[in-house]
Write a structure and sequence with these properties.
The complex is a heterodimer of chains A (about 375) and B (about 140).
Chain A: E1 2-7, E2 15-21, E3 28-38, H1 40-46, E4 56-57, E5 61-69, E6 81-84, H2 94-97, H3 105-113, E7 123-125, E8 128-132, E9 142-146, E10 150-152, H4 159-179, E11 187-191, H5 195-206, E12 211-216, H6 219-225, E13 232-235, H7 241-248, E14 254-259, H8 264-272, E15 274-282, H9 298-302, E16 305-308, H10 316-328, E17 338-342, H11 347-356, E18 361-365
Parallel strand pairs in A: 4-8, 11-12, 11-14, 12-13, 14-15, 15-16, 17-18
Antiparallel strand pairs in A: 1-2, 1-4, 2-7, 3-5, 3-9, 3-18, 5-6, 6-10, 7-8
Helix pairs in contact in A: 4-5, 4-10
Chain B: H1 7-22, H2 25-33, E1 42-49, E2 53-60, E3 63-68, E4 75-82, H3 83-90, H4 96-101, E5 105-108, H5 111-121, H6 124-134
Parallel strand pairs in B: 1-4
Antiparallel strand pairs in B: 1-2, 2-3, 4-5
Classes of the chains: A alpha/beta (about 375), B alpha+beta (about 140).
């Protein structure tokens, strides 16, 4: 038995229930969760903009300790500290073979089905199966995931910080370093100062960007972006973001613009504030039915690169340990990303705070 | 901080300036040579954001008439932009093609009609600067 936060209906709150967590099958790992971050992607499922089968255990930005391993598991053993990996790449599909594990077809299929690779789930509530979000279902005291969904990591970093690596940090830092490949001396704009946006900012700063312009509508968060490497801030509630960025870049626009909110209007803004020949990277997740309007003439005449970034185009087995090493070396900030720590029972308070836009990241700490 | 702090301030500055433009011989000639498409009774409408405001150019007895605020007039051409961008445009500090490409200005209607008029605006940009100085709003020139 384990306590888990279950979504029973869209628009509802999560309810804390006792669930049965099955033993790991061959190639699977059971994890005792120690911490899990509250992400906008979880919220998108709650509010129905990312429709998935229900009931479901949400949560994907998790960290914990290996409790039990199934037959054939070789990469981890009981007692290992791990980060959950919500893109458990199969290693066999065309994209994995091309080196783009972030685009793994099998992982995308599991995202849609809310199941393990065999089509079943490891959670049971009142005798009925409960789906697991992004294969992980991290808002549970225990979860069972495929072996590829656990990344062993060093033991000297607190779990609340480790959990962040699995989504907001890799997504943000990876978007700057892997997707955009921000170059030293370049100019960068980041729309959206949330868990991901802060990490894009520190990723761009790590890469040596000359100017990093943070754009948001909450003044307190804008002030905090400076500690992550932002050199300028724009309050989009007061000023037009595109005009402000053009003013700060001699009318050129920035070399790289990132959108980390998930709204079509701000995605267009990111494109519009990118210089000719520059790159726009969309990281925020919009609802599946939404479209972005951009100027058609600008496509050939301004020759920008417009792309997206999923999981920071990262390779978790390599990147997660590396990111934690950067933290240990004092080059990556993690503590200031956490606005509040909640118990599992307080999870709805955490989502209310997330929805208010006032927090960077709320984290669930599980009882020992 | 936005250039105009309120809808009324925008009308007092940009609206009054447009009224002055309406009195010029150039604008009278322009009105005389412009024919509105069927179903339209206004040439152009500027929709501003930050602050929200609306200015419409129509004609009355062959003279350009400026309508500030909500109206039932049906404009043939609509320009939508922030007030800051509009202000920059009339100062002559904005490249229209670039502003369209960056969606700082969005247009509905036959843009080609507006593009034809663009060369004549070269004379208006300095007039806006002069007007701002005249009304003691040098602060808006910075």
């Amino acid at each position: 038995m384990a306590k888990a936060a279950i979504l029973h209906r869209y628009g509802g709150s999560l309810s804390i229930e006792d669930v049965d967590v099955a033993a790991p099958k061959r190639g699977e790992v059971k994890v005792k969760l120690k911490a899990a971050g509250l992400c906008h992607s979880d919220w998108h499922v709650i509010d129905g903009t990312l429709p998935l089968p229900l009931p479901i255990v949400l949560g994907h930005e998790g960290a914990g300790i290996v409790e039990e391993v199934g037959e054939g598991v070789t990469s981890v053993q009981v007692g290992d500290h791990v980060v959950l990996n919500w893109v458990p790449a199969c290693g066999r599909c065309r994209y994995c073979q091309m080196g783009r594990r972030d685009l793994c077809e099998e992982a995308a299929r599991l995202t849609a089905t809310g199941t393990m690779p065999d089509g079943t789930t490891r959670f049971l509530w009142q005798g009925k199966p409960v789906y697991q979000f992004l294969t992980t279902g991290a808002f549970s005291e225990y979860t069972v995931v495929p072996e590829q969904a656990v990344i062993p990591i060093r033991r000297d970093v607190p779990f609340e910080l480790v959990a962040l690596i699995g989504c907001s940090v890799i997504t943000g830092v990876g978007a700057a370093i892997h997707t955009a490949q921000v170059r030293p001396g370049s100019t960068v704009a980041v729309i959206g100062a949330g868990g991901v946006g802060f990490n894009i900012i520190q990723g761009a700063a790590l890469a040596g960007a000359k100017h990093v312009i943070a754009i948001d509508i909450v003044e307190e968060k804008l002030a905090m972006t400076k500690t992550f490497g932002a050199t300028h801030t724009v309050n989009a509630r007061e000023d037009d973001a595109v005009s402000a960025v053009l003013d700060l870049t001699d009318g050129l626009g920035v070399d790289y613009a990132f959108e980390a909110i998930g709204r079509p209007e701000t995605m267009a803004d990111a494109y519009n504030m990118t210089r000719k020949g520059g790159m726009t990277v969309i990281v925020g997740i919009a609802a599946p039915h939404e479209t972005v309007e951009i100027n058609a003439f600008s496509l050939p005449s301004q020759s920008k690169t417009l792309t997206g970034s999923w999981l920071g185009q990262g390779n978790p087995p390599v990147d997660y340990p590396k990111l934690l090493d950067l933290y240990a070396a004092g080059k990556l900030k993690l503590e200031p990303l956490i606005s509040a720590v909640y118990s599992l029972e307080q999870i709805n308070d955490g989502f209310a705070a997330l929805k208010s836009g006032q927090t960077i990241r709320g984290v669930i700490r599980f009882d020992d | 901080m936005p250039v105009f702090q309120s809808e009324q301030e925008l009308y007092d500055v940009l609206g009054r300036f447009f009224e002055r433009v309406a009195e010029t011989e150039e604008s009278k000639e322009l009105i005389a040579s412009t024919e509105l498409g069927p179903g339209y009774d206004a040439f152009v409408q500027y929709i501003f954001h930050k602050p929200e405001a609306k200015i419409t150019w129509t004609a009355e007895n062959g003279v350009l008439k400026i309508v500030c605020g909500e109206t039932d007039l049906r404009p043939e051409l609509v320009f939508e932009q922030t007030a800051d961008v509009g202000h920059k445009f009339w100062l002559g500090k904005l490249d229209l093609q670039q502003a369209l490409a960056r969606q700082q200005i969005k247009v509905q209607g036959p843009l080609v009609n507006a593009l034809k008029v663009l060369p004549q605006l070269d004379a208006i940009y300095p007039a806006y600067r002069d007007y701002l100085q005249e009304i003691g709003r040098d602060d808006l020139l910075r």
